[in-house]
Design a protein that fits this description.
single chain, Alpha-Beta Plaits, 6-stranded mixed sheet
Length: about 250
């Protein structure tokens, strides 16, 4: 026999499930001085790259490398202060065990054992310190720039594609969370999928870059393999297969 009982809904609150977009700091070393230098080199000239994004600290790499040996001590107060400097909001820890888990909890990070830190391909492809935990949201409303970028200038299309209708000169930098389209020579630096989007691509009518990067995997303009497409219409994409993760440069016809 089925029994139905009328429920009671509180007047002042409701409890519902929710999801939260996060970024993950995959910590490879407990050396905060080295981490500070690398964060400065990567994000120091992009002060608004993060916008108080919630972050989970992933200690899986440190824990796996410590198996059978002494676990490195992590200065969590110092780590949190460093991350806050870059407008990141650390809220949880993943992959911590034993002493590290206890110290992280004492620092105010709640355990998140079920956090999914991207895909296996994305983890390998992203050589940078910070990567997306969830797939980036689809970019909407591309940012369109119709003037040339001079040396020292930088454009960042947060959460969307970037369309350049003029040249990106040497010393200039274009960054997008989505795709980058350059309908002119690309002679500076181009960073697509900046927040971990491994599906992002770069298109240009003249491939002459100082640096090309997608989801953290990068190649410099001096790479010998680029000689065949230098100055030509080209698209760049990230491929992950049995051969590993690599940037593929395809001529555009």
């Amino acid at each position: 026999m089925t029994i139905a009982v009328q429920g009671v809904t509180p007047d002042t609150f409701e409890i519902k499930s929710a999801t939260l977009p996060l970024v993950a700091l995959v910590l490879k070393s407990a050396d905060l001085d080295a981490l500070a230098r690398e964060l400065e080199a990567r994000f120091g000239d992009i002060p608004d790259f993060f916008d108080h994004d919630a972050l989970v600290v992933d200690l899986s790499r440190l824990e796996s490398e410590a198996q059978g040996g002494e676990r490195p001590a992590v200065d969590f107060p110092g780590l949190l202060e460093l991350l806050w400097k870059y407008r990141l909001a650390p809220v949880a820890v993943h992959g911590a065990r034993n002493e590290l888990a206890a110290v992280a909890k004492a620092a105010g990070l709640f355990p998140a054992p079920d956090a999914r830190i991207g895909t296996a391909a994305a983890r390998e492809a992203n050589a940078e310190v910070v990567q997306k935990v969830v797939e980036p949201e689809a970019a909407t409303g591309a940012l369109v720039i119709d003037k040339p970028l001079r040396s020292g200038q930088q454009v960042y299309a947060r959460g969307r594609d970037l369309v350049m209708l003029a040249m990106v000169n040497p010393g200039a930098e274009v960054i997008a969370d989505g795709h980058i389209h350059v309908y002119a020579p690309l002679r500076g630096r181009a960073i697509a999928g900046a927040r971990g989007n491994v599906d992002a691509r770069i298109f240009t009518l003249g491939m002459e870059p100082e640096l090309i990067s997608i989801a953290g995997l990068y190649r410099t303009g001096e790479t010998p393999q680029l000689a065949a497409i230098r100055g030509k219409p080209t698209q760049v994409r990230l491929v992950s297969d049995a051969e590993g993760n690599r940037l593929v440069f395809d001529p555009l016809k």
